[in-house]
Amino acid sequence: MTSALTAAAAGFGTGLSLIVAIGAQNAFVLRQGIRRDAVLAVVGICALSDAVLIALGVGGVGAVVVAWPGALTAVGWIGGAFLLGYGALAARRVFRPGAALRAEGEAAGSRRRAVLTCLAMTWLNPHVYLDTVFLLGSVAAGHGPLRWTFALGAVLASLSWFTALGFGARLLSRHLATPTAWRVLDALVAATMIVLGVTLIAGT
Question: Which pTM was predicted?
């Protein structure tokens, strides 16, 4: 029992260390949480996607992914272009803050856009495969028969983080009720997306 708890704790800590870092996905979840726009769907997609990727890594797919650098290059270009496009949209909102302050986004079209954006941001990022699939899969392998217990800890870390980020972000809503505050948030989102997009393309 002690060994299982140790493996689960190691998985939780390793998973959290990879997820908490500032990135495009976290910036998107934060913004959706503050706007209270499709939060449950976005949190669910992020957590479920991480669970699938972690399972693939622990199952040994990480070695296959890294063995095909051409596929990662293609994903890098596509993901980089997507991030640059989303960053440009966020930058435009800096000069048009009224667009960010519209109602809470309960329309089906808004929810659909949020879901599609979240899926693309998650699955078109090659860093997700390298970190979640290969790195976590490699660390999990060191736990031998307890590797799936390690994976469970990593999955719980992902679920805890995205739930806290998505639903906890609304606590900031009262501080972000002005156009100026939204412009600052969108400027940070735009900078994050553009830097990551350029980094992905430059690294391919």
Answer: 0.72
